[in-house]
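Issue 218. Parser rejects a valid record. Input:
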Amino acid sequence: MTAPANPTYRLLIALVLAIVMMVLDQRTPWAAPVRHVLGYLTAPIHYLAHLPVDSGEWLSEQTQTRGSLMDENRRLQRQALILEQKVQRLAVLEAENVRLRELLNSSADLDANVLVAEIIGVDPDPNRQELVINKGRGDKVLRGQAVLDAQGLIGQVVDAGPLSSRVLLVTDASHAMSVQVNRNGVRAILAGTGQSDGLKLLYVPDTADINEGDLLVSTGLGQRYPRGYPVATVTAVRHQSGAPFAEIAARPTARVDRASHVLLVQSTDKPLIPVPDPEAANDS
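Output the parser choked on:
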């Protein structure tokens, strides 16, 4: 029995064989097929060796891509919200410009001095139909001054402060005024009902020539409003058998619950009541 080979001896033999093969590979072509076959055999080993590194790089890339997409999505959502807000604001400005143009066109046809004011408040009391505007005594606003929008009378100033004023609407339950049918001149008393779209004619004889759709305009009687301004349109006429008066409902021509700007009219034929200045009274 032969003794096992010395490990050092085997290492020397492997080293010599490796050197011989390297020399032969460099100087002769016979080792190329062997290297080619060994390349096929060792390819899976290289693939498995690099698999953890490749997997880590792929996962890192996917994570970064997902994070970038989420950041981009959030940015686009914020941008969309900003653009929607801008579109809404542009729509509001466009509608406001339309209303202002209507007011300016309306004021060009008025035989009176006019002042444009903005509505800045509404009376929270459901039993009161009042507005607050941003013009007061400093703008020469007077108590009793008529207030209109582009479609007709809204009401009149009942209190003028230094910088703002209160306007009583024609729809207030305590308000009444003289009107006439534009079609035939029939006069009647128009009263508010406390509802923004509700008015009624009081004590109209059952035989009066008033029909649905008739336009009611101010008469100027009582020096409360200037004459000839649209006030309301008749919406219903009800006759009850045996009743001396007809029940007549009307709707304001003005956009009482939607107006944002109004016109204050100082008629040349109506003396208005100036509001006394408390400071001046105290000084005297």
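Fixed in the parser; the record now loads. The chain is about 35% helix and 25% strand.
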